Amino acid sequence: MIIKPCNKTIGAMISGIDLVSFDDSEFAQIYQAFLKYKVIFFRDQFLSPESQLKLAARFGELEAPHPFFPHVSTHPQVSEIETTPGNPPGTSYWHTDMTWQPAPPKCSVLCAQHLPDEGGDTIWVSMEEVYASLPEKLKRQLDGKTTTHAVHGFAGSRFDELNNKGESRVDNISRDIQAVHHPIVVKHPETGNPSLYLNEQFTQQVDDKGLEEEGVTLANLFTYSHNEAFQVRFRWETGSVAIWDNRCTQHFAVTDYGDKPRKLHRVVVKGSEPQAYIPK
């Protein structure tokens, strides 16, 4: 197995491994790379839904089927992220998966099924590096503060549809999903490292209005989180697999391919409730 870092801050390409059949020792190396590099990439894997589920289950208990995404008919925990002619992707936002849950996912496993000839890259950013880059005064201002996260990024999207009463499916489901409050700075449950924990798609507001009076806004914090120095951009190929740590990253889907056919399968692993980082 060869593990090659993509850059100095985030991402590694792993080769010389078959994700369908590997032993415990090889998985231990993969897992340590996952923790260290935050997103790991593989080529030429061509996983079946069963194999993808088995791989994801090595990382932990699997999430229930996504409430909005379509899925493989025989495997509801395998979401389909698909573009077809006449069904282009919608507006893309930087996000951390499903932070509208009390316990957002630990990680995701994404496998490319088919792709356009060009375009459709995905970009990840290390939110640990983002936090480390913040001015010390701002870090102190964020100590112990929280933000509100909610499902508001799917209404009107291509994953939405209207029923015979003209009601949004997303809105109807969302009524039963209560907003949650997460720390702005969280402690990684395994490494102990601090991360800035918010995102454009699901973070609605800063809960402490005193922060805004001090000039600390979500827009300002989002600007910090888009720093290209802490990013890695991945060019998908059929059979490519990406596995990322959802607890300390954000990602962004580049939608520069129109409605050319593109399909990826995603399986998500359950996480734990984010805990606030307390500086020493």
TrEMBL record:
Query: Any coiled-coil ranges, and where?
Result: none
- Similarity comment: Belongs to the TfdA dioxygenase family.
Q: What is its EC number?
A: 1.14.11.17
Molecular function as annotated in GO: metal ion binding; taurine dioxygenase activity
Q: Does the keyword Oxidoreductase apply?
A: yes
Q: Which Pfam family is an annotated match for this chain, by its short name?
A: TauD
Concerning InterPro entries, the annotation shows: AtsK-like, TauD-like_sf, TauD/TfdA-like
Domain TauD/TfdA-like residues, every copy: 4-267
Q: Does the keyword Nuclease apply?
A: no
Keywords, A to Z?
Answer: Dioxygenase, Iron, Metal-binding, Oxidoreductase
User: Species name for this entry?
Assistant: Grimontia marina
Question: Per its record, how is this protein called by name?
Answer: Alpha-ketoglutarate-dependent taurine dioxygenase
Origin: domain of life: Bacteria
- How is this protein annotated for GO cellular component? cytoplasm
